[in-house]
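Q: How would the structure tokens look for this protein?
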Amino acid sequence: MPRYVALLRGINVGGNKKVPMAQLRELMEGLGYTGVATLLQSGNAVFTCKEKNPARVGTQLEAAIAGEFGFEVSVILRTRDELEAVLKANPLPGAEDAPSRFLVTFLSEAPDPKRFAQFDPADYLPDEFRLAGREIYARFPDGIGNSKLATVLSGTRLGVIPTARNWSTVTKLLALADG
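A: Here is the predicted structure in token form.
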């Protein structure tokens, strides 16, 4: 059975869309998911499920969250193996040196290349970013807090749903998926 990583977008941020992790685990177990574990309070869960179609799993989980909590939450899913591939495919060196200044933005699907080409890397220096399939890797040498790039990556200007995690969280999620 596939092991999945669910990344919930925009929960427990600034007191909005509160989803207690214990309640999320119970909800997921009620859906028949096994080996459910969560990481942090920002909507990271790993689990095993009989369903082999990630799109169906994501739709099921989004509907269950809306029914349980009364608001919509986008869920970006990756399999355990896809998450490992994300870590291995990092095109920007140095993520391990400053993991809190390095983000992976997970996208619901690969963005339209023409739309992505509108973002000139020179406009965001010293920050750097690279698109690789359904992920954008970004390094923020001066921090994420005041970065124009971080704002762009968290928005919908690419026409797809994004959710970002720092490098440390991504590596911990893979370890949790393996645990």
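The two ends are 15 Å apart (CA to CA).

The CA atoms of residues 36 and 115 lie 36 Å apart.

Upvote if useful.
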